[in-house]
Every structure is written in C-alpha cells, then in structure tokens.
C-alpha cells in the first residue's frame, strides 16, 4: 500500500521507516505518530513482499493429512459429485473414510482396496439416509469386482460398527425408473412405446409390492425384480401396441441392462398373476395365458388383496379351519365356507385353478439334494478313545514297491 | 411394503408407559421399575412377583402382539431367557407383550404399580419354550499339535491318502474314510482336522491321522487337542420374512440380498453367527461347544416365529 506523504497528526513530511522490536513501522520523525505498521505474516518471503498470507495456507491443515488420505478424500468427493448427492452426504462419507483409514485393519491394505473403501463409505452414507444406491452402481463406477467390494464392505461395517438399514425397494423403483429412456420421444423409440413416468412408477411400485407379498423378493437381488416389474407395467399400460415387444428389446430401448435373473422373475410374476386372474369373477370364463393376462394387470392390481387371499392357501387359514372343524358349533361365516371350497386340500395341485400355498419359490420347487443320513446309533456311540487297529492305518500307507514306482514316475 | 413391524415404533411412544430403550433390563425390571429408575438387578426369587395384572391373551391377539410389539421386546428378552430357565419359570414372551393400542389398560399406567393389588385377572401360564427341533451338527473343526517337525514331501510320497502341492498350499492334505474327514498337516507339526459330525468323531479321526504320521516314522504325539468351531443346521419348517427381521433386529442382523440371499444374525449371547434363509433353514456356526448351538437356536426360534406371516 502506498505510504502517505505527510503525517496526519502534525503535517510534517519527515517520515521514517523504523523497526519497533521486530515490527516495521512508518513513523513521523516530528511527533512520533505511527502511520503504518507491518502486517503479521507467516512466511519470510511474504513479509519481504509485503503481501498477506491466506489463512488456509498458513494453518498447515493440509500438511497434516497424508497424501493417500488426501487422494482418498478427493475420490470420495468426486464420487458424491458424480452421483449428485447432497452436501451432507459428502461430509459424512469423508468422515467415515477418515475414521476407517485410521483403523488398524484398513491402514495397510492395498491401494485398490483403499479406493473401494471410499466407495463403501459413500454407499453406507447413502443407505443410512435411505438414498437407494445399489452395490452394482458403485462397483461399476469404481470398476471394482463385486466380491472384493463385498468383503471390504462387510469388514467396514464390522470394524466401524455401523448400522446400515436395509435397501428400500420403493425408493429403488423410483431411482431405477429414472434411468429409463422411455419417458420422452426419441428417434429410435416408436411413438406407442413412450410412456408417462408417473403412471409407470405407480404401477411398477404396485407390482413390486405384489412380488414382495408373494415371496418373490426375499433373498433375491432387487434390480432384476424391478426391471421385470417395470416391463410388465409398461406392457399393461398399452397392451395392444406393446404385447409384441420382447423383454430384451424393451431393455435395449430403455437403455438399461437386462440382468440374467430378470427372465425368471418375469416368469414367476406372470405365474402369480395368472393364479390371481383365475379368481377374478369376470376373467374366469377366459382361458388366460401369459400374454393375455397382461391386458388385465390393471384390474388384478386393483383387487390384489382380495385375489391374493383367494388364490393362495395361506398356512394360518389352514390352522383356522382346523380350529373351526374342532368346534362345529361356532362355524365361521361365509368366508370359512368359501375357503373350504377354494382350498380343498394342499395335496391337490394338479388342477390349474386350485390354490397353492403362498410360499417362496425355493420351497415350492425344491431342488433335489442328497441328504446325509442323520447320525446313526453306532455313530453316536463313538467315544473318541477307541483303539485304532494297525491294519486300518496300514491301508493308508504305500508299500515299498509302490514307493519305488512313484519315485521313478514323479522324480521326487 | 408397510409391514406391521415398521409401525411398531409409533405404537410404543404414546402408549407404553414402559421404558423400551434399556436393553440391559430384564422383563421384570421393565415392568416394575421403569418408572422408578431402579437399579437393574433381576429378582431371582419369583415367588413374590405378582404377574396377575398381565392381560390374558387370546390366540389371535397373541399372534398380533407377537408381530407388532413382541419383536422389540424379544430383543431384550433374548439375553434374559437363559436366566429365567434357572429359576424354573418359563415365561411365554408373547403373553408379556405390551398392551395393544386399541385396549389401553389403565391399571398398568398408574404410578403405584407394584404397591396396589390389581384387579385379579387370569395369571400368566408359564409355558415351556422348547421348539421341539434339535439342530444337527454338520461339521467340526479341531486342531492338535503333533509336536515334531515333519517332512511333508516324504509323507506325500509314502502315504496313499495324501496330496501335497507346495505351490498352492504349504500343507499336506490327508483324508481317511472312517470317520470321513480331511486333515491339513503342516511342517511344524500342527494339524487341522475337519469334516467330522461330532466331537468324539473328530477326536477319533485326529488320533488316526496321528497314527498314520507315526507309522510313517515320525515321533508324533497328541497334544492340545481342541475343538475350534462347530457348525449345525436345522429347518424351522416355515418361510421367514427376512426384510422384517432385519428391521426389527437391526443391530444384530445384516441382510444384503445383493451379496447373499440369507440374513446374517450375530447373536451376542451365546456368541454364534446364524445364517437365516427365506426357506426357513438356519445354519449356526462359531460354537466351541454343542450347547452353544442348541442355546442359540432356542433363542432364535421365538424370534423367527414372529416373522412367520407377512
């Protein structure tokens, strides 16, 4: 800054640069008034140039963080920006990352794992705020192997003792459908294929809820279910134009991947819908198959509570019937009688319309497995201290000729 | 997706006069002392405890309470059930659940809970907790020290049932037919024996391996035999709503369908990890004693029963 030519106090022009202890001062020689003082600086070079040093540069905060940590934090921040997460998430994720990296079990892992660790922190933050982010998305962003990501995630959860709430399917539906390209007109999408987003989201949510009630969701990967439900909902909103479109073509047009299990989920959903259709009074006259049932999905979803109750034999209803049979005086009302009609017995499964128990698919189509026999009585009599016969041990040892032969063959 | 359980937190706050957030308190303490902030001692003599004020629950009421309220409470009861067993009273958790939202019980909300005699209602019937299902042991892992240095190449050459691939793994893998087991034998003389179905079988198998090593000319001994891990499995015979279970027991459960179809439940007492599947099959692992597996299953069975229906 330019030094004033005269002293404001006495008007004299005799100004001298003097040092009071170590501080430079511009003093009036006549009256002693101090016109300007040296600034507080932190580096010698800045003092010489009479420049201010910014606070962030002078605190030395950056120097305290190791380069690895700085790089990791930048990576976490970049991930949050790419995913367009709120600012709060970024702070939380960075704090988790710092905590994790200081933990002895993560301090010395490979750089690849440290990068995955950053991704895991972002993932945990999203889940804790009920932001529907799937592991598949994070893995694809980090170009990571899912198994490695899984192991890092589980150890992070254990070491930092984080409680991660379960993935909410409702939010996942909205997020997944956001990435579909069918809501706006485009050159490669035929006009009848374009759909209104709100209608599609509502119907897909209802389908996913139906799948969840009928045990199709528990234990399965969530994304294929959402994709299959979206396809069925989309078809049912304009059946005449869309029934001819295959699942694969739908996914290609929408710009999403078709995960392999989605075909099976589609089949299972259609089976549930067919069973429900068999209970709807005005559809019973038609012979439904998996193409025609799509046209009536709207009705089926509207009455799904009633249809599910009638189409599937629930186990508790069996108990109630057993109780009712026990006390004939207090026979349940028409509901019970109707159940008697629709639920003849669990054994009769050949008839197409007869209800089956509402069970997960793994229980309805159990894979045949070799069951090892339960420990027999002789097994349980083993004490662990029985004498061991020499002949039994010798069967495991090679004879001298055998050893010679092996030596020659393998050239030990 | 609105499970019954997701609404249970709201059921608690306006209604229940009991303090839910004290996990270390036992049932008795929760019922009697929550309003008085008394210390968390469990009364070991139950003869003086008056449980007659508890409402008698009908079948459907009980099941509804189990799914709505009982799950939160079962978390606290889990740890304390084993203590109850000692005093010989088995209290059915379902009948100790909180009063239903539609039937407020005015006598319980009164401040002088243990002092005034309540209107006598049907007392709680102590019921046996046993589920009737016994988990079957599937695998036992044990270790033993043979206390001598071993020449692994020599063993692999002279034993029929041994395989040794030093580039892949630094131990000899040996198998015997009876009991059907596999052993990993290391050059230091330590050995791991896996595959047995009972502790005695594991010990017998380990002794047989030691005899084989002895016959091969090494001065093998049999020191520090110890069971390191036991794995059991069983089937509860009904499907389980894993999404509901992870909501209710968040601090113990980890359910990631993207990673693994089953729910991983880390029980604190006893320290056992359970893998719970939608089909109702349960795998229990991490036990050093057979009783830990049985105890863990008896603890989890009532919890699972609460998630039987949607």
Automatic annotation (TrEMBL), chain A:
GO terms for cellular component: nucleus; transcription preinitiation complex. It is found in: Nucleus. Residues 339-354 have a biased composition (Basic and acidic residues). This is Transcription factor IIIB 50 kDa subunit. InterPro entries: BRF2-like_C, Cyclin-like_sf, TFIIB, Znf_TFIIB. General activator of RNA polymerase III transcription. Factor exclusively required for RNA polymerase III transcription of genes with promoter elements upstream of the initiation sites. Contributes to the regulation of gene expression; functions as activator in the absence of oxidative stress. Down-regulates expression of target genes in response to oxidative stress. Overexpression protects cells against apoptosis in response to oxidative stress. GO terms for molecular function: TBP-class protein binding; zinc ion binding. Its main location: nucleus. Residues 319-392 are annotated as: Disordered. Pfam families: BRF2-like_C_cyclin_rpt. Transmembrane segments: none annotated. Residues 326-338 have a biased composition (Low complexity). Residues 3-36 form the TFIIB-type domain. Belongs to the TFIIB family. The gene is Brf2. GO terms for biological process: transcription preinitiation complex assembly. Keywords: Activator, Metal-binding, Nucleus, Repeat, Transcription, Transcription regulation, Zinc, Zinc-finger.
Automatic annotation (TrEMBL), chain B:
Coiled coil: none annotated. Its main location: nucleus. The keyword DNA-binding applies. Keywords: DNA-binding, Nucleus, Transcription. Belongs to the TBP family. HAMAP family: TATA_bind_prot_arch. This is TBPL2 protein. It comes from Nyctiprogne leucopyga. The lineage of its organism: Eukaryota, Metazoa, Chordata, Craniata, Vertebrata.
């Amino acid at each position: 800054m330019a030094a004033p030519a005269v002293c404001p106090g006495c008007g004299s022009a005799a100004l001298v640069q003097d040092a009071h202890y170590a501080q430079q001062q511009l003093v009036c020689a006549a009256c002693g008034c101090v016109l300007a003082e040296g600034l507080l600086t932190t580096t010698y070079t800045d003092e010489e140039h009479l420049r201010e040093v910014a606070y962030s540069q002078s605190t030395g905060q950056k120097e305290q963080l190791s380069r690895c940590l700085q790089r990791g934090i930048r990576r976490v921040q970049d991930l949050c920006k790419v995913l367009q997460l709120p600012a709060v998430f970024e702070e939380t994720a960075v704090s988790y990352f710092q905590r994790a990296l200081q933990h002895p079990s993560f301090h010395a892992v490979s750089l690849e794992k440290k990068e995955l660790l950053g991704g895991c922190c972002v993932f945990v933050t999203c889940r804790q705020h009920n932001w529907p982010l799937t592991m598949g998305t994070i893995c694809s962003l980090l170009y990571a192997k899912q198994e490695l990501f899984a192991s890092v995630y589980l150890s992070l959860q254990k070491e930092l003792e984080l409680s991660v709430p379960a993935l909410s399917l409702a939010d996942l539906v909205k997020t997944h459908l956001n990435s579909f390209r069918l809501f706006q007109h485009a050159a490669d999408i035929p006009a009848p294929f374009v759909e209104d987003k709100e209608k599609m989201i509502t119907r897909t949510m209802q389908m996913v809820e139906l799948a969840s009630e009928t045990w199709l969701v528990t234990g399965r990967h969530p994304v294929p279910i959402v994709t299959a439900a979206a396809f069925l909902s989309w078809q049912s909103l304009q059946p005449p134009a869309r029934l001819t479109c295959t699942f694969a073509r739908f996914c290609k047009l929408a710009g999403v991947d078709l995960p392999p299990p989605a075909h099976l989920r589609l089949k299972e959903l259609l089976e549930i819908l067919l069973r429900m259709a068999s209970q709807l009074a005005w559809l019973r006259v038609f012979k439904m198959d998996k193409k025609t049932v799509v046209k009536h999905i709207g009705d089926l979803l509207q009455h799904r509570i009633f249809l599910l109750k009638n189409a599937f034999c629930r186990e508790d209803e069996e108990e109630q019937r057993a109780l009712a049979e026990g006390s004939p005086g207090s026979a349940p009302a028409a509901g019970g009688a109707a159940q008697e009609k629709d639920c003849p017995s669990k054994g009769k499964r050949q008839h197409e319309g007869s209800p089956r128990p509402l069970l997960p698919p793994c229980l309805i189509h159990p894979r045949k497995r070799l069951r090892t026999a339960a420990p027999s009585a002789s097994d349980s009599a083993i004490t662990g201290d029985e004498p061991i016969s020499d002949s039994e041990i010798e069967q495991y040892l090679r004879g001298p000729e055998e050893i010679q032969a092996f030596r020659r063959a393998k050239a030990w | 997706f609105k499970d019954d359980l997701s609404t249970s937190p709201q059921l608690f706050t306006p209604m229940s006069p009991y303090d839910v957030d004290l996990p270390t308190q036992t049932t008795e303490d929760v019922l009697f002392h929550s309003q008085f902030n008394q210390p968390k001692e469990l009364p070991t003599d139950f003869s003086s405890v008056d449980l007659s004020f508890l409402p008698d629950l009908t079948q459907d009421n009980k099941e509804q309470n189990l799914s709505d309220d009982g799950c939160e409470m079962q978390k606290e009861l889990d740890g304390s059930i084993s203590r109850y067993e000692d005093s010989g009273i088995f209290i059915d958790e379902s009948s100790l659940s909180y009063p239903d939202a539609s039937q407020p019980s005015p006598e319980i909300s009164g401040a002088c809970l243990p002092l005034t005699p309540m209107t006598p209602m049907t007392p709680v019937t102590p019921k046996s907790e046993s589920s009737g299902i016994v988990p079957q042991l599937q695998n036992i892992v044990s270790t033993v020290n043979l206390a001598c240095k071993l020449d692994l190449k020599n063993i692999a050459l002279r034993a029929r049932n041994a395989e040794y691939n030093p580039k892949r793994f630094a131990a000899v893998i040996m198998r015997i037919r009876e009991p059907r087991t596999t052993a990993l034998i290391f050059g230091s003389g330590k050995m791991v024996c896996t595959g047995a179905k009972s502790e005695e079988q594991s010990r017998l198998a380990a002794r047989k391996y030691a005899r084989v090593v002895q016959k091969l000319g090494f001065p093998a001994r049999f020191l520090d035999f110890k069971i390191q891990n036991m794995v059991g499995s069983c089937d509860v015979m009904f499907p389980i709503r894993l999404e509901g279970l992870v909501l209710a027991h968040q601090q113990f459960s980890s359910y990631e369908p993207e990673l693994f179809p089953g729910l991983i439940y880390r029980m604190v007492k006893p320290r056992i990890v359970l893998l719970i599947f939608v089909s109702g099959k349960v795998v229990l692992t991490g036990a050093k004693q057979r009783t830990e597996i049985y105890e863990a299953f008896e603890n989890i069975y009532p919890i699972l029963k609460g998630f039987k229906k949607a």
